Amino acid sequence: MAAWCAWRQRLPLGRTADLFAPYLALGVAFQRAGCLVRGDCFGAVASPPLGLVFPGFAQPRYPAELYEAVLALGLCGLLLLWRERRRFPGEIGLAFLIGYPLLRAGVDFFRINLGGWPTVDQLVSLTVAAVAAAVWLWRRSAGPVTPARCQDHRVEPNVRRR
What is the mean pLDDT of residues 48-56? Predict the structure, then answer.
């Protein structure tokens, strides 16, 4: 949806992704902290020092949502630091599409799993991360972006077509 809106408003997709990616990670962190407050999204049964006792459960469980919140907050910080060193427009957006699915797949090991490993969520996450990594490697192999190629292009406002 965001890519379509950027295209519709004639905004450069790479720069738009670079702008929003760190704050998407921040939003995930707040959303997962909300899961902890609500008491859902809990993980599998955990040993006492690593688990929390959720309402309605006698045994401690992994606070998978807390793990994901902390990792997403760290990802937000890394993406904000990386913005100053990006080599091409869209690199921060691609870094989010690599980092978040990987941390999500890792946290899934602490969730309740009624099926086998890997879960469907892990397969989808790893696929997204692999595709984003391939695009990142392809874009990076094009060479460093010179100041002339990295100029901030002015975009004309979207004029309604009749």
Answer: 82
Query: Residue 149: inside a domain, yes or no?
Result: no
Contact 73, 25 (CB under 8 A): yes
Residue 161 lies in a domain: no
DSSP string, 119-145: PHHHHHHHHHHHHHHHHHHHHHHT-PP
Question: How many structural domains compose the chain?
Answer: 1
Structure tokens that stand for 27 in this block? 């939003």
* Phi, psi for 28 (deg, rounded to 5): -60, -40
If pLDDT is split at 50, 70 and 90, which confidence band does 71 have?
Answer: very high
The DSSP output letter for 41 is S
For 39-119, where are the alpha helices, taking DSSP H only? 64-82, 91-107
Tell how far CA 138 is from the center of its chain.
20
Q: Is residue 38 part of a domain?
A: yes
The closest alpha carbon to 10, from 150, 152, 159, belongs to: 159
What's the predicted TM-score (pTM) here? 0.81
Q: State residue 140's pLDDT score.
A: 87
The parent domain of residue 35 ranges over 14-141
Helix axes 13-38, 64-82, angle to 10 degrees: 150
